[in-house]
Design goal:
By secondary structure, the chain is α/β, with parallel strands linked by helices. 25% of the residues lie in helices and 29% in strands. The strands form three sheets. An eight-stranded mixed beta sheet has the order 5-4-1-6-9-10-11-12, sandwiched between helices. Helix 1 packs across helix 5. The structure holds cytidine-5'-triphosphate and calcium ion (CA). Cytidine-5'-triphosphate binds next to helix 3 and strand 9.
Length: 227
């Protein structure tokens, strides 16, 4: 191999990555969604491919060029993302949930375009979506598979980014939680990242900063330590 060829340390492994952000239809032309670009998920899929894995990318509304050698399943809603991830996870060694999943969806999607009604405000009733990560962590669709979540957090008066990340790591039951600070130009839509990787007991196992490719390799290093 070329001197700068990446180690093939994921050869023989099947990994599943979710990317992007889910959208929940309000009517045939409108949706509730988020600003996730899908770049971190893409970087994770590409890094795993480079390191020799078979990769399934479940991509929610990602407007990026297709990745060579990566099986990509395009989805829109949380329900579709859940189906795509779960079916690929049945024989996966690791599942990384990098997608921003809509926490709520409209209770019903109108079959025709919602029209304005006079000057009245519009009230939407939202119901909670299933927590795909928590389900994967508790069910382990394949025994021994490594489950990884991402937590994009902001600090607030009561707690720091890491406090929120720790609480989430403990709550979700995933093997690894990748915590990053967002807001003030960090995280969403940017090319650089600074993350702390926690284990299921919320202990720090690694930190990484730099490009999303650097973060992706740090995540796979941490996954490998669990395989
Ligand atoms: N996630 C998921 N299903 C959901 C919501 C989130 O699988 N319905 C996953 C995300 O893909 C991510 C992790 O859970 O890997 C953390 O997402 P986050 O939105 O930070 O967690 P929530 O439990 O939704 O908490 P919050 O109230 O802070 O949004
Ligand atoms: Ca959420």
């Amino acid at each position: 191999p070329a001197p700068d060829a990446p180690p093939q340390d994921l050869a023989g492994r099947h990994v599943v990555v979710s990317a992007g952000g889910t959208r929940e239809p309000l009517d045939p032309v409108r949706y509730l969604g988020n600003r996730s670009s899908g770049r971190q998920g893409h970087a994770l899929a590409q890094a795993a491919r480079r390191r020799g894995a078979r990769v399934t990318l479940v991509a929610a509304n990602v407007g990026l060029p297709a990745l060579e050698g990566v099986e990509t399943v395009a989805v829109e809603t949380t329900e579709q993302l859940r189906d795509g991830v779960r079916s690929a996870a049945k024989d996966a060694d690791a599942v990384v949930m990098a997608a921003a999943v809509a926490d709520y969806r409209p209770e019903a999607s109108a079959t025709s375009k919602i029209k304005k009604s006079g000057d009245d405000p519009l009230v939407l009733r939202l119901v909670q979506n299933p927590d795909i990560l928590a389900e994967l962590a508790s069910e382990r669709l394949r025994p021994g598979q490594v489950i990884v979540g991402f937590a994009a957090e902001t600090g607030d008066d009561g707690a720091s980014v890491l406090d929120h990340g720790r609480a989430k790591a403990l709550r979700k039951g995933a093997d690894l939680m990748v915590v990053n600070a967002v807001g003030e130009g960090r995280g969403f839509g940017t090319t650089d990242n600074e993350v702390t990787i926690l284990d299921r007991d919320a202990e720090i196992v690694a930190t990484a900063s730099g490009s999303k490719d650097t973060v992706a390799d740090a995540v796979w290093d941490a996954v490998l330590a669990h395989l």
